Structure formats: C-alpha cells, structure tokens
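Quick question, first post here. What does this chain look like in 3D?
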Amino acid sequence: MDSLTSSEAEASPALVEEYQQWRAVGPGGAPFDWNGFMLCKKAEITQARDDTTNLALYDSPEQYAKGWKEATEAQRRAAQTCFLKQPLPERPGPRSRAKHFVFPQRERNDGEPQDAQVQAAYQTAFEQLGEVNSRVEWKTSVLEKHGRALFLQDPVTPLISSSKGEICHVHRSDLSGHVTLSFADAREVIGKGWGERHRLSGTETLHLGYTMLYVPRNVAEVEVYAQIYQAGIEYMTSGHQE
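> Answer (accepted):
Ran it through. Tokens below.
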C-alpha cells in the first residue's frame, strides 16, 4: 500500500486513481477532498475490519462491542434481543457488497441511475418511520454530516454513544443506508444477505450493530428494509435505556 501523502501531487498514480474512485462515491462524513481521502486511508490502515459479513463477532460482544463493560444488564439484554417482527427471507439474487472504502460506505457511485418508483417508495417508507414512532426526531446526520437522519430523543447510553443517538439514515446518492441494530437483528440482516457491517463496526469507533443496508432492487424490498429500520428504532428506544 502507498504511504499516506500530504498532497495529491506527491502521490503515486495508483493512489491518485484510488482517490478518483473514492470521489466517485460522493460526499460522506469526511471532507470531500484529498485530506478526507487520507483520513479514510488512515482508518483503513489503523482501525478498519475486512470481515463485514462474519457473524461470529456477535458471539463475543465483550470483545467487540464498544461500551459493553459500562452497559447495564438491561442494555446488554436489549443488544442481544431480536426486534424484527419475524425472520427475514433470504434475499434473492447475487449478494451485494459495499465498495471497499471505509467511509463513505456505499454500494454504488453517486449519479448512477435509480429506479424512480423504488426511490419514491423508499422515501415515503422512510419518512413514515418518523411519523409512527415516538421518542425519535429528525436531525441532520452526525455521521454523514448532511442529509436527514432519525435520532433518539432520550439520553445516550454507553452502547450507543458512538452515534450520538443517531438511529438510521438513507444515502440519497445510491439509496443504501445505515441503521444501528441489536446484535441479534444485525446477525439476521447480514446472514440473510440484506446488508453488512460498517468496516469500523466492532471497533472503538462504532456500535457493533451499526449495519449498512444494501440498495433496494424493487418496491417489495423497500418493505423489507422498512421492517429492518423499524427494528433499529425499537432497539434504540427499548429498555436498554434503563
């Protein structure tokens, strides 16, 4: 791997090409320039995990879950409880995967065509989550630094402190999204092919249940993703606040 460099002019052609690929994904939480790209590369070297579909991490929360030692027994139980109303179906077709960048984590590049019907259905379903749930509010995402996200109104506890109470958001650039799930629900989502962990999930930076949801392929999948977001809301507003 090329060493980190202070400017694009000093970088190797391979690193410059990777920078252009990173730019094509679109803006996220880091500065949308060379400095932001270097932050991404530093995180890749020092913190990021590659095993974003490995379910074994959920068997050892004491090792991988930030805030586990400080959490109460009620908060630990909630983190290991399933909030999905029913088991998810196996997602049909080839498994999607996120691009390799640590952040922003996306499935597709910014500007790639989106199905208008799916986009409209997804936006409606996501907005409805804020209408039917109490103890949540809309604010600008603290993780993405732009775009709307649902937040917990209650005080933040050790297990969810890394997101500052942010529950979920959808990326306008490609319609992938992120949600903080209980470990049991994250296992179900990843195991059935609907998403994968963030590369910083399971480190000191992000909640072990912080999960990327893939781009919905059709309107029927929008309904599944709405159920997953709802499970995240119910986890974040559950008895783990006690």
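The helical segments are 13-25, 34-46, 61-64, 73-79, 116-132, 183-191, 219-236.
Residues 2 and 15 are 7 Å apart (CA to CA).
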